[in-house]
Structures are given as C-alpha cells and as structure tokens.
Amino acid sequence: MTPTLVRHHLSHAGPAARVDLWARARDWSEIQERMLVPLYEAVYERLEVGPGTRLLGLGCGSGLALVMAAARGAAITGVEPSSPERFALARQRLLPDTWDARAREATRLVRGTPMDAADAETPAYTLVTAFEPIGCRTGDAEGLGELLQGAKPLAERGAAVVLAGWGPPERCTTASVLHATTGPAEPVRASCRDDLERVVQEAGLRPDGSGRVACPFGYADLDSAVRGLLSTGLCDPALAVSDPAQVEKELTEALHPYQRPDGTVWMPNVFRYLIARVP
C-alpha cells in the first residue's frame, strides 16, 4: 500500500502534526513491538497458555503477542479499536492470503470494539489480554476500562484478564527520555502503582496476582531508537505543538546518554502486569 500522510488529531489544543501513519505502524511492527516480548512470554508462561486457551487480545496492534500465543497452540481473537494501519499489518501476519479456510479457523481479527467480536458460535474466552502498557498518558486507564467492560461478557467465569503498565519511574529509563521530549505540551506522567488495580476494581474484576518483567529497549542506532519511540504515540503531544524536526532533535539529545560506544542504544525498563479474574 502507498503510505498516506494524514492529520493526526489529538485531544488537546494546538495544531495537529502531520504524521505518516503507515510509516509509524511499520516502525512499531519492525522496531518497537518486540521490546515487550519478555512481558508476553512471562504472562504466557505463568498462565500456561497452550492448545486449550481461547485468547482475546484487546488493542492487538500489529499482532506480535497473538503470533506468540498462536505458536503455543492457542485459539486467538484480536481486537484493534484505534489503528487501522497496525490492524492491516496484523492481518498480514496472522491471516496471510496463502492460508486456507481450515488454517484460519483458530484465528480471528476484528477492527473495532470487543463487542464487535461477539459471536454466538465462538466459545467464551479463557484469557483476555491488554498488553498496551498504561501509566504514562493522562486518560489511558479510562480507555482501558472501556475495553474491559466490553470484553467481560465475552469471557467465561474465572477467565484470566491481564493488564500491563509501566513500572516505577526510577526503573523505567524510557519514561525519563520521553518526559524530556514532551516538555510542557503534556508531560509523560509518573506511573502510579495503583493504576492497574483501579482499572480492575472499576471493571468489576477480582485481582489474582501480579508480576514485574524487565523489558529493556535496545536499538541498533539512534535513528532506530527515535523512530521506535515515535511509533509509540507517546510523543504526539509534543508533535502537535512543535515542529517534528525539533521533536526528533530533542528526542535524539535525550537518548545520547544511553548510546553505547558501538552506536547501539540501550535503556533498561521494568514493566508490571496484573492478573485479574472474571467473577
């Protein structure tokens, strides 16, 4: 597909930045998404995801977490409510044209809300995941809560629901880098330990354990690091009020302390996940 430049509208005041959303989605898929692989692996190992698992992935993005679950034998459904570009990449990964109808049976992708995934012929889900980490942007917890409210009726009683969040600020190098870049536009806020618990409580779910996972962000060079971090969307407030070249310059400068002598960039981070159960 030919990349298209579109206006990326944000909720706050100020001129919207022109963003190539197709390029951003590819950067997410090719550079940034793999940074959370240790998180996916830790959750799947702890919950023994396998052939008996029926997984509903909320905000599935370009689908890497679903690919990993499918490789374990799980039947997967991915829901992507906000990014048609990432969703298109997920379809390429998970529903290639070369697959026959039988190979597609255990895989569903839905562009929309969890309720759009409701299907009388589909058994209730045994696992619901929301791996997009919350805790850095104002309002992200509320958006996650809405997704969970839509997903809860689709899960069986006792099904596990997994939420992810950024770890303590002092253990998330990337948060400080992003904070230095966004500045007064809408600073990346410090992650609050209670964010995940509050979402679970408001969704009417029962907490059932948690864990922390080291997810270092490693890049081949500064250019890859800048592209990867921009693909997260966490710099969008700055892009809405500043020249993109200036934002990239500030991001590059903030990354310099984490560049190694060989040119690679390495930022230690810790992410937290919370497991809840459907009552």
UniProtKB/TrEMBL annotation:
<keyword id="KW-0808">Transferase</keyword>
<dbReference type="GO" id="GO:0032259">
    <property type="term" value="P:methylation"/>
</dbReference>
<protein>
    <submittedName>
        <fullName>Class I SAM-dependent methyltransferase</fullName>
        <ecNumber>2.1.1.-</ecNumber>
    </submittedName>
</protein>
<dbReference type="GO" id="GO:0008168">
    <property type="term" value="F:methyltransferase activity"/>
</dbReference>
<keyword id="KW-0489">Methyltransferase</keyword>
<dbReference type="InterPro" id="IPR029063">
    <property type="entry name" value="SAM-dependent_MTases_sf"/>
</dbReference>
